[in-house]
Design goal:
Layout lengths: L9 E2 L6 H9 L7 H4 L2 E6 L5 E6 L11 E4 L8 E4 L1 H12 L10
Antiparallel strand pairs: 1-2, 2-3, 3-4, 4-5
Length: 106
């Protein structure tokens, strides 16, 4: 089964627009703030066809240090936030134990 060590994190393309960033900076946020610098994402597809997005950084449901936001949108309506690595592994195992998505009727 895939777990945290299977993930490859890449720089996340910020969903915060340049205009919003400019406004935040104008309102006193440091332009070198971690909220803009440390945004990482890993995308993974499991053998059963389910996908999961794992995010890291203070702009997400993550403390940017030791917790992660994860979401398997085919499985749940909302992401899970502030997951430790152990909790993230448990979530990944949970999703991988589901029936193959091609056998799930909408």
């Amino acid at each position: 089964m895939k777990n945290f060590t299977s993930l490859v994190f890449k720089e996340h393309k910020s969903t915060i627009s340049d205009i919003a960033k400019k406004q935040l900076i104008e309102n006193g946020m440091d332009k070198d703030s971690i909220i803009f610098k440390e945004m990482k994402q890993a995308l993974i597809t499991f053998d059963n066809g389910y996908k999961m997005s794992i995010l890291f950084g203070e702009a997400f449901y993550s403390n940017g240090k030791t917790t992660y936001e994860a979401w398997s949108y085919e499985y749940e309506d909302e992401p899970r936030g502030y997951l430790t690595i152990q909790e993230l592994n448990q979530y990944m195992y949970e999703v991988q134990s589901l029936k193959d998505i091609s056998n799930v009727k909408s």
